[in-house]
Design the sequence.
């Protein structure tokens, strides 16, 4: 068998019965409770769910920033259990945060070069400019973050995440601080990364952002509650509204809203 082909078939990320508990004795919180998920290479997954449902914990466990209390996380063939964060992060994963986290005193190019320097490499100008080119900001290489719009700063942050050519790119509310136009540009860039074979995993609260993904995974109380393939913003919003609505089965106390005939469940 062709070994390259078999490597390609290994999923980018696998979670196997992952549990992450916090606290001790009587006051244990299961932030993740027996979560199993597979992300194929070159796919874009959005993770959604109410506050406290386990989204950040899932992202951190997959990125090797936190360790599961039970189960396994595999990045390609690599079992993250027992692997040091530094070794894992060297080139295999990239991060884009809601707050762009650029260093204000450095130029866009210097910010992009930072992960390479931190990995002990001397950045080549061409690779830094290529990363900025990918986000349409080659012409702003010499600008500092304060001279760029929010959308442009986030594009620099995407370039910084890309410069190490990571297999998996994580977004933690990457468009949360952007207006809708700038947000769509950033989401389009993340989407385009999957065409190059990169795998994108993004936490979001925004149905429009989620609609850029191939699949949405809904968490509730640390468990996978639902999945939606080929999501549209409308379907995601409807799914979220269904979660927020009171269950018809529950003998709910009448509220001001349920007194209205328009919202009484039939
Ligand atoms: P989300 O990102 O969906 O808001 P989190 O993953 O941050 O959810 O949290 C899931 C659950 O785990 C919550 O009940 C939260 O209070 C708990 N939790 C998260 N981090 C810690 C921690 N460091 N110590 C104790 N509990 C935590």
Sequence:
């Amino acid at each position: 068998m062709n070994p390259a082909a078999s490597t390609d078939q290994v999923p980018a990320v696998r979670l196997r019965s992952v549990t992450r508990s916090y606290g001790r004795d009587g006051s244990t919180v299961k932030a993740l409770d027996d979560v199993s998920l597979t992300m194929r290479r070159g796919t874009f997954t959005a993770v959604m769910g109410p506050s406290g449902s386990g989204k950040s914990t899932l992202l951190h466990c997959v990125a090797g920033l936190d360790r599961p209390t039970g189960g396994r996380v595999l990045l390609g063939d690599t079992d993250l259990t027992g692997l040091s964060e530094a070794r894992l992060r060297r080139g295999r994963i990239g991060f884009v945060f809601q707050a762009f986290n650029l260093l204000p005193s450095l130029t866009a190019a210097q910010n992009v070069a930072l992960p390479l320097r931190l990995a002990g490499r001397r950045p080549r100008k061409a690779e830094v400019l290529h990363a900025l080119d990918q986000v349409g900001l080659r012409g702003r290489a010499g600008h500092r973050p304060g001279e760029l719009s929010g959308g442009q700063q986030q594009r620099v942050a995407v370039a910084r995440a890309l410069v190490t050519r990571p297999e998996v790119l994580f977004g933690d509310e990457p468009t949360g601080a952007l207006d809708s136009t700038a947000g769509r540009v950033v989401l389009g860039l993340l989407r385009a990364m999957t065409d190059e074979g990169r795998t994108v995993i993004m936490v979001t609260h925004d149905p429009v952002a989620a609609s850029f993904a191939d699949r949405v995974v809904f968490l509730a109380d640390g468990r996978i509650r639902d999945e939606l393939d080929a999501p549209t913003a409308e379907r995601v919003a409807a799914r979220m509204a269904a979660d927020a609505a009171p269950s018809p089965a529950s003998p709910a106390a009448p509220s001001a809203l349920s007194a209205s005939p328009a919202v009484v469940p039939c």
Q: What stands out?
A: Residues 22, 29, 31, 49, 51-57 surround adenosine-5'-diphosphate (CB under 6 Å). The first helix runs from residue 3 to 9. The chain has a mean pLDDT of 86.
